[in-house]
Amino acid sequence: MARREKMRQIADRGIDPFGCRYDDRTMMEECQEMASEVRWVKEDGTTVELPDFSDAQLDYRQWKSDQSPGAETGPTVRVAGRIMLSRGQGKLIFLTLKDWTGEIQIFVGKKQVGDEDFELAKLFDLGDLVGAEGRLGRTNTGELTVFAEKLTFHTKMLEPPPDKHAGLTNQDLRQRMRYADLAFNDGVLETFLDRTKIVKSVRTTLDQDGFCEVEGPTLHTVAGGAAARPFATHHNALDMPLTMRIALELHLKRLMVGGMERVYELGRVYRNEGISPKHNPEFTMLECYQAYGDYNSMMDLTEQIIVNAIEAIGGGFVREYDGNQVDFTPPFKRATYAELFQQATGIDPKDDAAVIQLAKNLNLETENRHLDVVRNEIFEEKVEDSLTGPIFVIDYPASICPLTKRKRDNPEIAERFELFVLGMELANAYTELNDPDLQQELFETQLQGLDEEESMAKMDHDFIRALRYAMPPAGGLGVGIDRLVMLLTGKKSIRDIILFPLQRPES
RNA sequence: GAGGGUGUAGCUCAGUCGGUAGAGCAACGGACUUUUAAUCCGUUGGUCCUGGGUUCGAGUCCCAGCACCCUCACCA
Question: Distance between CA A177 and CA A291 in Å, rounded?
Fold first, then answer.
């Protein structure tokens, strides 16, 4: 109850323990940038640059006595943030204050702030939100510091903070109490701010390329556009079953029929499937469609999106992920599905007998299954994991791509690419199928060996009708935003880049 | 869904062969006007995940359950 008792004592001093408006803050980052404005002024009025504080040998106290007589000067700042560390020293307290741009040390001396504010400072606890106004300067050890002249109390933290060194490491608690994770664990806030920068950059890239952003329905009567199990729900007034969307595709294509020639949606989709370090039931997808384009134009766009996202968060094109180095310098490699298949297995993918034999050797099911499904399982098993990338795998077997246009000179091959990085599928794009009759046929003929949930082909009569109103030839692209954020922020678990991943409720 | 691991103070973690529950940080009291995870002295703090069982005696051994983590499967 110590914190509540201090809160009462703060209130007794006539101060609202939950604070109020506080204008004209200098953010911590700005304070750090203002370090060069801290100078030494000699008695004769001449100004001297301070020494190099990055020099570990530097003794600032000695330096100052060498410069004497004179005094340090610096700009006056007004900062507010959370108390991360506190070092009491009798009539002197050092606070480490953090806002969302960085940290700075506050020097609170009894003589400097006066008795009243010093008594207030004694009621501060780790985790409290406080403000300080004073001159920016350097302590004897050279640390950039706000020498407080006035203190402000903003908000009392009523819970004890996590371990000030180790932070909150329990994964369960980190997700359950993301607020504490963000506030007390180094780098967590920065990672999520990077996520925001990446998403913003994706939007900017598309906006500047003339795409318009739309919001499609998340409640679908037919969960199409991908192969996944949907969440089922129900509308009471209409007494109608509904599913949460598993993809954005089919509504965006309807909009292209309507004349939105460059359209995208960046939004949440929901899949009722397993949870893993790479899967969350709700995740963020980008899908964009460009009329009169094809999958080649989508490859260029994909590169542009990724290149711009990397530049938005910095750190260069060569990135470290899980001990691997990935070079995102464009252009990315391109290879056909067939040649990668051949390279990895030594078998010509067109040699049906050899493919079946290989599948049997790998203990894959071959009975009653379309050969392209078998081929693709071999591809997933033997090729995908070995793709360091970034690499565009192009030209997929047509029968596993029911929404994709076939190559004009070869109906067995679909104009599709997937972008792989370290075995992860980062993007998936087609030259879009816009022939309503063929689309209907592909929806009707379920692939052998695949039940409805495993197939992308789900009959959607309204979508077929839309295509009959003429959808322009187009390229379409889907990007798994969470995967992109994971790769660019170096996080190995999707739970580290989704603010509130799904969890069971606390008992 | 299958296998493995973890669960002890607010947080991070020890806990030997089954024998009265431990440390660091935080909190509380004290000293200290240039500290850096400040330091020093003292104090407080426990449903050992839950429920059964074995035993004179269980944090420790056994069984069941719950939660989280990892791997695999499904998938992006």
Answer: 45
pLDDT tens digits for range A191-227: 999 999 999 999 999 999 999 999 999 999 988 888 8
Q: Which nucleotide is nearest to A138 (CA to C1')?
A: B34
| Residue A34 DSSP code | G
Length of chain A: 507
* Residue A335 DSSP code: E
In the three-class reduction of DSSP (H, G, I as helix; E, B as strand; rest coil), residue A501 is classed as coil
Angle, helices A188-208/A295-313, rounded to nearest 10 degrees:
140
Do A370 and A447 contact (CB within 8 A), yes or no?
yes
Distance A505 CA to B66 C1' (A): 12
The pLDDT of residue A446: 62
The model's pTM is 0.92
Give the model confidence (pLDDT) of A44-63 as tens digits: 888 988 999 988 888 898 89
* DSSP notation for A76-134: EEEEEEEEEEEEE-SSEEEEEEEETTEEEEEEEEHHHHHHHHHHHHTT--TT-EEEEEE
**Model confidence over A234-247: pLDDT tens digits?**
999 999 999 999 99
- Is the pLDDT score of A401 beyond 90? no
Between the CA of A87 and the C1' of B49, what is the distance in angstroms?
36
pLDDT at residue A507, as a whole number? 62
Joined tokens for residue A343 = 């390279």
Taking a C-beta distance cutoff of 8 angstroms, is the pair A164, A85 a contact?
A: yes
Q: Estimate in Å the CA A107 to C1' B40 gap, whole number.
A: 22
Give this complex's ipTM.
Answer: 0.90
The bases of strand B with some atom under 7 A from any protein CB are 1, 10-13, 24-28, 31-39, 66-76
Helix count and strand count (H, E) for chain A:
15, 22
Distance B39 C1' – A134 CA (angstroms) = 27
Tokens of A475: 């390229």
Answer yes or no: are the C-beta atoms of A386 and A324 closer than 8 Å.
no
Task: Give which of A275, A307, A170 is closest to A498, Cα–Cα.
Answer: A275
